[in-house]
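Model: You mentioned two targets. I'll fold them one after the other.
Researcher: Yes, keep them separate.
Model: Target one:
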Amino acid sequence: MTAADKSVRNVASDAFEHLRGCQEILQQLEALMIALKDSAPQRSNQARLASLGAFVAMDHANVVDCFIEDYGQLLEVDREGID
């Protein structure tokens, strides 16, 4: 393995860590929105907005999870060609 290969792997590793951090923050945002929804009066605008926010945060966290999985598989395929 060359120094360039190690550098690429380091960059990829850093990118994965940032994606995982993004996913964690989105999951925390989802939990916050659920707590806001639960504390708001039922069927109020606040509850509806918090419910929407929770759904959007959950959906984006799932998208980031898919990115992590897809890019991880691509990196493994590339790694097989390097090793």
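Model: Target two:
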Amino acid sequence: MYKKVIFILVSLLLIFCASAYIWQTYSNTIAQQKASTPNQHSIGLTVSKVDLSWQQGSKAVDLDSYIANNQVSQNIKDKKQRVMLEPELIRFHGILQTAVNSTKADLVTDSLAVWGISPLPEVAFSTYIRSPQGQVIAVYVENTVASHISSYYQPETVLELQAYRLYNYAKGPRLLLVGVKPVEQELALAIKTGIASNTDADINGTDTKDGESTQRSAKASQVVEQETTSL
């Protein structure tokens, strides 16, 4: 009888130890999975180290199509409202329209705070980006990226950019630039040639051979002057 009791106790002890080991293994596995899949809202937005660390996971978009797909209704335009959207990381090609300038960026903080983003990126600059078809949009620029652009790039430079969409408003999507890379000369030329073709169609209605890119730039500059007060 005594031996049976000892046998039962030993068996229960072994079962308990085995269960504890399985539970610990399961808990460790879940913890590792959570660690390898960070939550954007809990860690905040990631700013690339400019040319050194291009972010993974951004969605490649055509800027002209993206602008067209992120328009708001006339009712929202009339009321001068914004549609706050969960930050979306995108990448695209664009032309630096103007130099980077300091600006108030309260709207960046307000937009990101809606989604509980923390810590918030440091943003005190803005600029204008021209799309391959000549549309001009105002963008906010994270401070590190703003410094890099000011140091290395002049207006009319074709760049590959990474940005978070913050919200949509009367003029389309409002973006926050968080990454920038140079573009190979061949691709830059092709993009500017595309601008030339669209300039020709928009302004002259016929094919021309010279001066199209300059005309588009001048036309876009007029748009910038009209929009300056809204940045």
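Researcher: Noted. Anything on target two?
Model: The first strand starts at residue 59 and ends at 60.
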